[in-house]
Amino acid sequence: MPPLREVIARHGLNASKALGQNFLLDAQLLARIARIPGDLTDSEVLEIGPGPGGLTRALLGAGARVTAIERDHRCIPALAELGEAFPGKLRVIEGDALEIDGAGLFEGKPHIASNLPYNIGTALLVRWLSADWAPWWQSLTLMFQREVAERIVAPTDGEAYGRLAVLAQWRSKATLAMPVHRSAFTPPPKVMSAVVHIVPAEAPDGVRFATLERLTAAAFGQRRKMLRQSLKGVPGALAALDAVGIEATRRAETVSVAEFVALAKALS
User: Would the annotation count 14 as a binding residue?
Assistant: First the structure.
């Protein structure tokens, strides 16, 4: 395979700011990311926004069968060349990942591994976390801005703790797998990045995702206010606080994931 820089130059693939593109070219770094989900030999993998195919190469090299969704039509010829180098291992779908039913592309459960476009990363994550449980995917290995990654894995009472941490952690295990320096990208973004690895866990009984989502949106939407104020717009929430023994004078960042789950269960 020719070097990625050569592929990018030959196809005129300057990263698009409008599409949130920042390309990773370091083959060793990409190989490390591809190893995070574990052994991918003959496993199905969904990749969003492969661009010129840096991570795609690493996933294919690890033995995966990759389905890649790419919105940028400029990248399609470069990905087609990659498909020729790995016959029968790469399926490329041109389109917007926000409009495509990822689950409908697979008969089994794929891993999802992506250097996500920054402008749609959080929206996709919330969609995957809100799937019916157990979800249609085996694991998520996703690149985010470091700030977003820290919000996903944040512990209770930390500065980064908020709605995203609760939604990620109430029925899955989220870990920060590796930091990635801004200099690893072309062009370098203004911020540092990190890879988050998420594995599904057993869901607590009697809790509806929609209820938990509404609670956390209200609580963290006014995170500096006491719960008795921030949750007063959620029917039954104040009574539920009393029922599960959570002081209404507390603030959202002090409420653990388990306590949010108990509150949602009382309301479900």
Answer: no
Q: Is 22 annotated as a binding residue?
A: yes
Q: Is 231 annotated as a binding residue?
A: no
Residue 261 has φ and ψ, to the nearest 5°, of -65, -45
pLDDT digits (tens, 9 = 90+) for 243-265: 999 999 999 999 999 999 999 99
pLDDT of residue 117: 82
Residue type (1 letter), 107: E
The answer to whether the annotation marks 129 as part of a ligand binding site is no
Q: Is the peptide bond before 27 cis (omega within 30 degrees of 0)?
A: no
CB atoms within 10 A of CB 205: 7
Whether residue 119 is annotated as binding a ligand: the answer is no
Rounded to two decimals, the pTM is 0.93
247 is in an annotated binding site: no
Q: Are 191 and 145 in contact (CB under 8 A)?
A: yes
